[in-house]
Amino acid sequence: MPYNNSMKVKRLRLIFLIFWLILAGLIVWFKVVPNGQVTYSMAYPNKINLFGGKGFIGNLTPADRVEIKAGELAKISGDPVYFSVFTPRTFSEAKVTITYRDNLASNTPLIESGVLVDNIVWRYQLASLENKLLDNSFSGWEKIVSDNLVLWQKNKTFSDLNQFLETVKTKPETICSDGNLKTCLALYNTDFISSYKVEKIPEFQVINIPLQGAHQFYFIAKAKQPLKFSFDFADLNLDKKGDPVVISIYKGTDKIYSNTLTDNFGGDGLGQVRNFSLPLSYSNSSSSTELYKLEIKVGDDIVIKKIKEAPSALLAIERLHPVNANSLPLSFWTDSSFINLTTNNPASKQTIRFGDQDFALNESYQQFEFLNNNLGLKKVSLKKDDVILETDGVFSFSADSFFNPEFKKVNQHFVLTPETQYVLASYQTPLKKEDNFKQASVVLNTKDAYRENGKYSFMISVPGLSLAQSGNLEISNITVEFSGRTIWDKIKEKISTYVN
Predict the structure, then answer these.
(1) Residue 361 lies in a domain
(2) pTM, two decimal places
(3) Which residues constitute the domain of residue 73?
C-alpha cells in the first residue's frame, strides 16, 4: 500500500513537471519566437482566435472613420485608419495581408498600407494593396512583369525590363523624344528621382517665412561645391518634452550627412520661447552638378524662423506650414493639379486663390482639397498664415526659382496624357476571391520601424476617401506575418562577436 502511494506521488510529480515544462516551453516559444517567424490575425466579424487577433492586433481607429458592429464586417469610411500589433520581440519584416471588399467610387482608386517609421513627424512607410488605375487604364499597352516590378509601354520598344532599366541608367536621354525622361515616364510606388537631369540652378533666396514643424526641401549643388546652410530656429516650449533638431542631407535615397542638436531645456523653459541658430557645412566630393534633399526633422514645438544660406534655391517637398509671417499675403508656386489645405486655427479661415480660381477654407480642423487642372505653374495666395498646405509635388517660394525634379505619379490625381509612353510601378494586382472579396499583401521593412510598449503601428489608407465621402471599404481579415532572426542566428552573432 505505501508502495502504491509512493508511485502515485511520483506520477503526479512527473505530470506536474511535464506540465510546467510544456508551459515554460510555450512561454519561451511565444516570448522569444525562436524560429524568427510569427503570425497574428484579426477577423471580422470577430471570431475567437487563441493565438492571434485578440490581444495582438488592436482595433481599427479612429472611431469616426470606422464602423464596427456585432456580426458585421468592419467598414472604413475615412482616411486613414490605424491598428497596432503587439509583438514579444522586434522583427525585420512584416507581410500585411488584407481581405476586403470595396464599395469605393472611381475617384478613390488607391488602397495602401504601411508601418510607422518615424514618431517625430509621424511618417509611415506605405506600399500598395490596390491601384485600379494600373489595373484598368493601360489595356492594350505592352506589359512586362519581373517579380513585383511592372513596366507598361505604349509601344513595344523594350523587350525586357532589365533592358529598360539599363537604358534609364546609362542613356536616359534616349527614352523620350525631347530627351527629358520626366516627359514620358510615370511612376508608382518606386523612386527614380536620382535620374533627374539638372537644367538650371536657381539662385538661393533667403526664406523669411517661418515654417512650423518638420519640412523637406530639394536643392541643387555644383560639383565640389560645399553644402553650407544657416538656420534660425525658435523652440516654443509648449510642452515638457525635449525638442531635438535632426538635419539630414540625401543624395538620391542615400543619407550622406546627419546632425542632431539635442534639447536639454524641455520643462525648464516651459512656455518661454527659446531662439537659437544652427550653421552647418558638409564637404561635397561629387564630381557633377546634382540634386539633393534636405530634411529638417523636428516636432511642432520647433519653428524654422529663417533659412539664411543654402547652395541654391530650396523647394519644399509636398508640405508647407507657414506661421507668424512678418508680412501678408503669402505666395507659393506649384505645378500640381491639387492642393490640400488644413488649419487648426479658427482665425485662419479664409478664401485662398489657387491659380485663377478662388476656394473657401471655411472650417478649422478639417482638410479641404482644391483642384485646378490647368497645366503649368500656378500661384497659391494666402491672406492669412497658420495653414498647412500639402500636395504630391513641390512648392517654391518664387516663380523664378521653381523647378520640379519629380516624375508624374499614377495616383488618384493622375491624368493620362499623349506624352506618357511608359509607366513603371512596384505593384501586384490583388487576388480575387468569392463574393467580390479581394486579397492583397504588402511586405514592409520593420527593421527601422517605430515600436513603443511592444507595439508596431500600421495604417490602412484610401487617399481621398475622407474628402470625397465615396463609399467604404469592408474589411474581412487582417493578417500580419512577422519574420526576423532566429535564436540560432542570435547565438551565432554573439559567438562571432565574442571570438572576434
Answers:
(1) yes
(2) 0.84
(3) 37-130+431-483
